[in-house]
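re: that complex we talked abt at group meeting.

here r the seqs, copy pasted straight from the sheet so there may be weird spacing, ignore it
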Amino acid sequence: MGEMHVVLRHRDIPDLHDLDVYVAHGGYAQLKRAVTTMQPAEVLDIVKASGLRGRGGAGFPTGLKWSFCPRDVYPKYIVVNNDESEPGTFKDHELTLRNPHQVIEGAALAAYAIGAQAVYIYCRGEFWQEMKVLEAAVARARAAGWLGQRLHGTDYTCEVYVTPGAGAYICGEETALLNSLEGELGQPRLKPPFPAVAGLYARPTVVNNTETLANVPPIVEKGAAWFKAIGTEKSPGTKVFCLSGHVERPGNYEVPLGTPFEDLMALAGGVWKGRALKAIMPAGASSPVTPAAKLAGLPLDWERVAAAGSTLGSASFIVLDETTDMVWVADKTTRFFQHESCGKCSPCREGTYWLKQVYRRLVAGQGTAADVDLIGDIARQIDGKCFCPLGEFALSAPRSTLQLFREDYDRAAAGAAAQNGQAHA
Amino acid sequence: MIVVDGRPVAPDAAHTVLDACRTAGAHVPTLCHDARVEPRGHCRACLVDVDGRLVPACTTPAHDGQRIATDTPALAAYRRDLCELMLAESAPRGAAAALCAATGADGTRYPPRARDGRADDSHPYLRFDLEACIKCRLCVQVCEDVQGQFVYAFAGRGEGAHLSWGDGVRFADTDCVACGACASACPSGAIDDVDRRRATSTAGLRTVRTTCGYCGVGCQLDVRTDGTDVVQIDGTRAASVNAGHLCVKGRYAHRFVGHPDRLTTPLVRRGGRRDAPLVPAGWDEALDLVARKMDEHRGKVAALSSSRCTNEENYLLQKWLRAGLATHNVDCCARVCHGPTAAGMRRVLGTGAATNSLADIAHADVILVSGSNATVGHPVTGARIKQAVLRGARLIVIDPRRTELAAIADAHLQLRPGSNVALLNSLACALFDLALENRAFLAARTTGAAELRAFVAQYAPERAEALTGVPAALVRRAAALWGNAERPYQAHGLGMTEHFQGSESVMLLCNLSLLVGGFGREGVGVNPLRGQNNVQGAADMGCQPDLLTGYADPADPAVRERFTRVWGRPLPTDRGLTIPKMYRAAARGDVRALFILGEDVVQTDPAAHVDPAFAALDFIVVQEIFLSKTAERADVVLPGACFFEKDGTFTNGERRIQRVRKVVEPPPGARADWQILCELMARTGLPQPFAHPSDVMDEIAQVAPPFAGVSFARLEGDGLQWPVPDAAHPGTGILHAQAFPVGKAVLPQVQYVPSPVLANAGGEAAYPLRLVTGRVLEHYNCGTMTRRTDAVRLVAHDALEIHPDDARALGVVDGAPVRVVSAYGEARAHAALTEAVAPGTCFLSFHFPETGTNDVTSDIVDRVADCPEYKLTPVRVEPIR
Ligand SMILES: Cc1cc2nc3c(=O)[nH]c(=O)nc-3n(C[C@H](O)[C@H](O)[C@H](O)COP(=O)(O)O)c2cc1C
Ligand code: SF4
Ligand code: SF4
Ligand code: FES
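got the structure back, here u go
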């Protein structure tokens, strides 16, 4: 199977970020049609029927999420999760830079569907350029009457605001994001209540990923059946796969869900330097590694990647070739999560700290077999004990590499034994 | 059915899994759980096994069918490891350390890592040792959600997360109001206070529950004592009034108890001469002298009772005057604070006390606070109001100052001092204009709506603006908020009552609630924030010339019969004098002997009243715990006991009668005030049979129907809210549910009359500023108690708050000494420049005798209830060079 551009349309249409170009290619027509000729429930029903699932990681059915918002509580909000901080993920970055209007139109359609009048686009703190592009896009669309007060002569108003994050991975977690948006410390909230009931400013709120929303205008335009015909039954549509690591042509590739692993790799030119594949991390640093053996012929959708022992998440494939030391990989992810732990709950705060200490020793050649055992102990102390999923994300690489590539650990510990031996000699 | 460790628990008995476990009697360790705030699930100590999964008990909702295990090998291992992680990051004390020990964690699993080693002891009360902090954040939550203060934050992330109150800031320089809630909540000892540290190092402490003596909120205290000293105080968690919360005074200002300045022997002036020195005397000599003099001046005696004393003592004092000395000349400081509330509310509704309870604040959707700086004067109630506002209640504040509550209000009506009546009328007018009056309620329970509507039309906000200085649009906005309220709750303070038209202002507050149907249900009502701790009780007990115990009318024959029967004496037939009238009568020679129980009138009443009276009186007795300014001028001083040293009851501002329990003995030589009074009654021919204050309460129950069902036995726990008509009655939280005692309330019409003080004073040219007096958080009234505690390290002198524009025009800089001059006298203070007061207005507290605040205030009183007009005096301010 080859590439198919539902959201990466800018790759086929030059200058799609420009409002005029976007409009010339049918842009904002769906929003206008919805607002002027459709009931909000109709928009919601189309999205529900399309089977669109969230592209932010969990793959939660988008229409269902929208329908959790109580009908008659106002105000409500749409929040676009453009925090994109997962190592190895860079699709929202391309989308907002190159096809911003499709994201905005999708968000506005979502707002119309749930009865929200305001959209907040929460951008990763480092997205300076993306913020500028989005702000300019909103301003132009608003000036042209595609957004703003009393759209197309109706009573419906939709304002879009672009807001910066402050540079923390945890702010991608939707409740931490909402705290951050409110100006609070960006740390997760207790759930329930879920955002659909009490989100931004304790009002019903839908948080959707950038890519998720970019799918909405084509779905409204072409209908649920069209969308369902792409991809697989349970994972319909296309997905942007971010390929990085030991691959010939790293980058974003939009393909139908269910595309076999080999087809995707072929698009990217395969493993670099002609080397063999050792494993991949299919959802960035937070996913368990999947060994080459399990990847052969694997159709890439949420169910089947899960069945292979990992998670598709946001589809950020970090490719690891045969030379990769898995202790080194786990050390890197551990350092990342230790740095990003928000510090709210003790198992994650302290557990990631000690995990890092152990890995630092191992990669420095000072680790011991006891250290390898300690990894399991600390992991048990974190697993299922934390306030939010970040704590468990931190365990993905350590646990899976330890289980699948024990020999790398033994080698690291043996290095220490040898050094100790030298020291004693 | 929920099953906890094999024991069944009914699902509706539990909100959370933790509740279920506790109901089942299972022990679940918790560190960041505190019933006063929402559970947040930070510490992860409370994990239990629910249907095979480990979940935090504190945050997981309970539901039918759950199978919960609290004690499995996996949990034991988890808890120990959690503690090991905790010991690596901190050196906890208290509950956290206890949990570590209980789980067998010993800090050897992980080497201790670099810790946050900050300590801070800049504050007089609070102490910090952050090496102990386990980062549970309960302090942040308690500070924000209980006190409504925002002192703390967590900064940093991951292992660098740490408690912060501002980088490089000394704790003493934060916005902390020293309520101590954080110290009472912190499970690790990282936040501590001086008393807690003392308590941990003192063995064999006993805890006594009693009622705070610092204001009319009536917080319940758990006082820890070693038998001789008050060591440490916490709020009673189970108490309805404060649910464990306290303010800086209640929690920390107790060092006055064993202070060396305490009076421990009676003092007399020998030879009957005022210029003779006060010298120590024996109790018999002093008591005989008092008895002889009071007898000698029969017909010309008067007494001032004390709102700081118990109900039983107040009852005894008025009984002594009435039954023993045959006069109604007894009054109390309610006269100088909420007398106008009682008078005004009684006129309109028939009862002169709070109609609802403090707990109702949480149910209100719009709160109107008028003339009250509640976060200062009634801090725990103020905190409740802040909590309600933070949860979304709307707030309207009427106050000449931008108080803490005004700053968070939806509408702050910053009126010119003295224009209350005009403003309240214009609010009523605006309500009518918006057609937001509750017609059904008005028709069913009031008369005079049409007439009121016509009357208040002359106070249209646009016209009243010239009198009040409040923009008409703001008045209309406030009226719209108030008129649209479902549960409109009012709290008012002395800024309403201590005025020439004080009682009438209170009548108009009643109007505002009548107009919107705000009576007789939860979350509404007119609720005076009573000032002194037992001012409600002093009035309830009959310490006022015109009303007997339980507000009985001495003119009523049935009442006379009842009192005569119980007291065995006829009731007096004179009219009785209010405090200001007593002073005037004394100055004229019509009152010769004055008995003062625990009041420092020289410092707190206008000197214009007090000085001529004291000069003319033949005999002054003061019963006190310190040699106050008033005691210094007495002929006999009797050393009494403070509220930690005796049994009895106080009645708080929501009519709740609560127990006062003896924690420590009075200093040697001093006596409980009720015992002194009984002695004096016996020596003037009225022996009393009481062996204990509970016996006095039993007699009160006999004479006063509202207290008929009250006895000490029934006052355990949260006490009772009067009326309590019989021994089975549960007490009354909400008054006027069905009808007002007056039947249909007649909506009062009150014309605004400018206070004569404005005309008296020699014109605006001579006295261009309007002075308001009041108190600050850290001190209590005349300060005799709080000035003898570390409160002076927080606030060491009275400050004159003045607007920077006014100050600039006068050449006054911040902190500079100034003279405050009125037509009556002058005071001295340091200027505090603040935009909290509007230009043209200034504010001065009265806690320090050297200030002389009440030398400045006038002799104008409320024209109905004789309450001095403390809240308005024209003054000029001069820099002292
Ligand atoms: C630690 C953590 C980080 C996350 N980061 C992101 C992120 O950067 N972008 C994102 O879209 N979703 C992120 N998520 C998922 C969001 O919480 C949320 O599920 C998502 O925004 C929902 O959008 P969707 O339904 O459109 O996928 C993160 C979740 C966790 C637990
Ligand atoms: S799991 Fe980690 S990131 Fe999530 S709340 Fe706990 S400390 Fe914060
Ligand atoms: S100071 Fe105490 S209450 Fe605050 S976070 Fe630390 S341990 Fe918790
Ligand atoms: S008590 Fe439940 S997490 Fe702290």
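couple things i noticed - The interface with chain B takes residues 168, 170, 185, 190, 192, 338-347, 349-354, 377, 380-381, 384-387 of chain A (CB under 8 Å). The two ends of chain A are 60 Å apart (CA to CA).
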